[in-house]
Amino acid sequence: MSNVPFAFEASTKPPRDGNKFVLRFWANRHARLMEITYSIVEATLRALAPLFKLIGYERMEKPMVVVEKTIKSALFDCRMCGQCILSSTGMSCPMNCPKNLRNGPCGGVRANGNCEVYAEMTCVWVKGWDRDALCVGEGLGRQSSYERGR
């Protein structure tokens, strides 16, 4: 057996059971609330930075990673890839793409917005685009997060 990763999940493998991810789908539908919550948590952590420095960042890292992994796994099916862009994709994790495409949708997105690999699954990038529009409220002509200076 080869250790080379597959380009995408086997087409014979059914997509994950949606019932297991009710919380993730709720978080996607409430992307604006998640973005506000994220901003509050970030501001709180920044305010606590002097305390973390006093305690020691090395000592704080492990417990913070455990908390982050637990919350993000439940809400976003996070893979802890280390390159999180949830705030840019309407709280829809692109690592949930069967092809693991991180920088945008593949060329095979169906006309109805569904995945090329799993016809019954909405493309995570289509979800991300729709949810991001809800977060920033600028519609199709909106600027990227980078252009807005976030």
Question: Could you characterize the architecture of this molecule?
Answer:
With 150 residues, this protein is mostly helical. The chain is built from six helices and no strands. Helix 2 crosses helix 5. It is elongated and about 55 Å long. The relative contact order is 0.13.
Secondary-structure blueprint:
Elements: H1 22-29, H2 31-47, H3 49-55, H4 57-76, H5 124-136, H6 145-148
Helix pairs in contact: 2-5
Shape: elongated
Largest sheet: none
N-C termini distance: 44 Å
What string, H for helix and E for strand, traces the elements in order?
HHHHHH
Find the count of extended strands (DSSP E, 2+ residues).
0
For the record, the count of structural domains works out to 1
The percent range for strand residues is: under 5%
Structural class: mainly alpha
* Percent in helix: 40-55%
| Overall average residue pLDDT | 75
Q: Number of DSSP helices?
A: 6
Rg is 17 Å
Stretches where pLDDT is under 50 for at least 5 consecutive residues are 1-11, 137-150
